[in-house]
Amino acid sequence: MQIDIYGFREPPFLMTPDARLFFPSTVHSRAYAHLMYGLAQGEGFVVVTGEVGAGKTTLIERLCAELDPATYVVARIATTQVQGDDLLRLVADAFGAQPDGDKAAVLRSIMAALRNSPRKHVLIVDEAQALNHSALEELRMLSNVTDGKRALLQTILLGQPQLRKLIASPDLDQLRQRILASFHLGGLSEPEVRSYVEHRMRAVGWAGNPSWDDQAFGVLHRHTGGIPRRINRLCSRVLLAGALEHAPHLTAALVEATASELDEDLGAGAEEMPAVAAPRGLAVGLPMGAAAQLEDLAQRVEALEQNAARRERVLNRLMDLFAETSGDRR
């Protein structure tokens, strides 16, 4: 629906990571620089952490798209809570080695695969926060494999913030000594939220329709914390709301109402909703805390009223369409 009305070639805010839509924000550019630095060293570990939806997978998709396949062999695995032996089998399968047999046979198969190719081998382990100590220790042991002159395997660990706490464990000191670069992906700044939204829309054919309120991007940032996947989810719903009303302009109030509706749909409680700034002058003469609460409440009421009015308009339009369809059938 939003493609038809606004003329997009494809949806701009899909949840699936897409390297074509990579946005070089400050944090993502720095994370990418850390990855490239680590790869240039030719050994050890690179660690990238971030909240769910921060853009780790998109970052890696971009990296893999730019690595020369004549120089690099890249293997990727996504882990759950696997033991060390099972992880070795996943690594063997990812590099095209033989994953069957006992542990010694699997290790020999991995080493043969690494040594039989002159290219550099990079292992990317996603959801690494789910690994236990024995699995991480197996990865550390694989980092010791050399041809006498150089390491044959580099490993990139991607994970949620818990991975940093896991690696800080006293039992993993030897692993920490092999980490060449580490970076934590935070959220986008408020100005970058605007650039991110416009970048994704422009990539699928946006030419100014719909337009956005300047204040809408501040509301987006407040409700998403600048996390790309959260931005995608909220913007997708905002575009849907705008398309239902054939709105050529997306307002801050529409974003606010849509965010509230999305929280309702997902079962979020009022205590989890971020604080909202309300129009000035509604609470003059009250104590500061009470004034802030009253202004916050006024903003929420306004958003809910606009949301209810929008739903009523959509319902009326659907009833009109149903009536027209029924008339055609008669």
Automatic annotation (TrEMBL):
<dbReference type="InterPro" id="IPR003593">
    <property type="entry name" value="AAA+_ATPase"/>
</dbReference>
<dbReference type="InterPro" id="IPR049945">
    <property type="entry name" value="AAA_22"/>
</dbReference>
<keyword id="KW-0175">Coiled coil</keyword>
<protein>
    <submittedName>
        <fullName>ATPase</fullName>
    </submittedName>
</protein>
<dbReference type="Pfam" id="PF13401">
    <property type="entry name" value="AAA_22"/>
</dbReference>
<feature type="domain" description="AAA+ ATPase">
    <location>
        <begin position="42"/>
        <end position="244"/>
    </location>
</feature>
<dbReference type="InterPro" id="IPR027417">
    <property type="entry name" value="P-loop_NTPase"/>
</dbReference>
<feature type="coiled-coil region">
    <location>
        <begin position="291"/>
        <end position="321"/>
    </location>
</feature>
<dbReference type="InterPro" id="IPR052026">
    <property type="entry name" value="ExeA_AAA_ATPase_DNA-bind"/>
</dbReference>
